Amino acid sequence: MTRTEYPWLLPSALADPLVQELPGDRGRERPRRTVRDWIVDTVAFLFALLIGALVAEASEEAGSPETLLLADLAAGLLACCSVWLRRRWPVGLAGTLIVVSLIMPAAGGAMLVSLFSLAVHRPFRPVAGLGSLAVLAAAAQPFVRPDPTTSTLTNVIAGVLLVLTVLGWGMLVRSRRQLVVALRERADRAEAEAGLRAEQAQRLAREAIAREMHDVLAHRLTLLSVHAGALEFRPDAPPAEVARAAGVIRDSAHEALQDLREIIGVLRAPDDGEEGHRPQPTLATLDALVAESRQAGMRVVLDNAIAEPAAVPASTGRTVYRIAQEGLTNARKHAPGAEVTVTVRGGPGEGLTVHVRNPAPGGPVTGVPGSGQGLIGLTERATLAGGGLEHGRTEDGGFALRSWLPWPS
Q: 281-405 in CATH: which number?
């Protein structure tokens, strides 16, 4: 359920349960009856008919005149048929049946059904007004049509209690429906907010990647500019030196283009102070990350099968480092004391696989807040690098993080 389906459901209505409208409150705007509506209306009709028949039988046993008895039966039958209109005109129908039941007791069952429908489909003020009128009518009815078989006081108390019970039941049903509507609205808002937070996390991850690429490209383009300037100012340099400078320029331009292809479509946010000028990690610095985690008290097992980390493309190495860093951070927060295993496999042409896993924590864990945005950012980073990332719980209750990244041959 959303506001598009029920445009009258506004936050102000949710804040005040006395004025909140529910689906079906506006009878003329109500959609067609469902199967459930037909069943409920049929049960209500049969209930009103049963009460009317019992009251008519009691009137006959009390010796009521035949003409009055026939009139009572006709009024009761019409009142029972009018129950089918209770969803469209609950206020008018309830007011009419209250007056009719004061004179014709056989309409009492239909009057009770209309009061229940009124309490369900209308706010407190009209229910309180007509409910007070119904209580007065229930108290006055034994005096208008006395029953010689029972005392007047008993009839008054029974009638008033019956009216109050029906009104209370209807208001309870309405309150429960209001609660359901409010909870659904709150769930819709929470879902929308979660979607916005996920989009924001993806945008921040893209911006962080763009900042990293900016630093790397700036370094390579600066190197390219230096060697090109040397060739410009030393046209008489030895051929070997010219060839070496040209090779550096070519390699730097090629690597810069490779990195640039990875961030096509990524918007770069304005530079945030000195954050973008820090040295960028690579696969070769993974050992330092593990050593730092061990110094912090973690038990970490590093299984790195890459013999020459420097041969791994810098962008791929950075992504592996960030994945391992996030995996160690999550394990430190959510599984303190558990042994973490970091596995790196792969080679040129087959790609690079990084796997971070930890078992379930051995003892109680203090609740640490986490939004999951780190994993969203890692997924975005791996996707932009041409790979993919998976994460989730393991069968033993632990957590695993696995990613594959391309490594050109």
A: 3.30.565.10
Of 68-72, 189-193, 288-292, the range with the lowest mean pLDDT is 68-72
Higher model confidence: residue 263 or residue 161?
A: 161
- Cα angle value 220/226/229 (rounded, 5°): 140
Tokens encoding 34: 């469902």
pLDDT digits 0-9 by tens, 99-143:
888 878 877 888 888 888 888 888 888 888 888 888 888 888 778
Cα–Cα distance list, 160 to 58, 95, 156, 166, 302 (Å): 19, 16, 6, 10, 79
Cα separation, 192 vs 371, whole angstroms: 15
**Rounded to whole angstroms, what are the CA distances from 332 to 93, 285, 357?**
67, 20, 12
181: which residues sit within 8 A by CB, 6+ positions away? 1, 9, 14, 20, 22, 23
Contact 316, 352 (CB under 8 A): yes
Please give the single-letter amino acid code of residue 101: S
Regarding pTM above 0.70, the answer is no
Quick one: which of 381, 329, 383 has its CA closest to 342? 329
3-state secondary structure of 304: strand
Comparing C-alpha atoms, which of 139, 280, 157, 283 is closest to residue 219? 280
Distances from the Cα of 374 to the Cα of 129, 227, 309, angstroms: 58, 39, 25
404's enclosing H/E stretch is strand 399-405
CA-nearest of 121, 112, 97 to 166 is 112
8 A C-beta contact, residue 328 and residue 299? no
C-alpha distance from residue 168 to each of 52, 86, 125, 181, 286 (Å)? 22, 18, 14, 20, 69
Measure the CA–CA gap between 387 and 404, rounded to whole angstroms. Answer: 5
Q: Taking the alpha carbons of 80, 86, 92, 94 in that order, is the dihedral positive or negative?
A: positive
Question: Under DSSP, is residue 147 helix (H, G, I), strand (E, B) or coil?
Answer: coil
Residue 264 has pLDDT above 60, yes or no: no
**Tokens read off for 215:** 């630093």
Contact 376, 287 (CB under 8 A): no
Judge whether 110 and 48 are in contact, CB under 8 Å.
Answer: yes
Q: 123: which strand partners?
A: none
Least Cα distance to 372 among 407, 346, 399, 348 occurs for 399
What single letter denotes the amino acid at residue 321? Y
Helix (H) or strand (E) holding 148: none
First CA to last CA distance, the chain: 53
Per-residue burial over 214-235, b if 16 or more Cβ lie within 10 Å, else e, is bebbeebeebbeebbeeeeeee
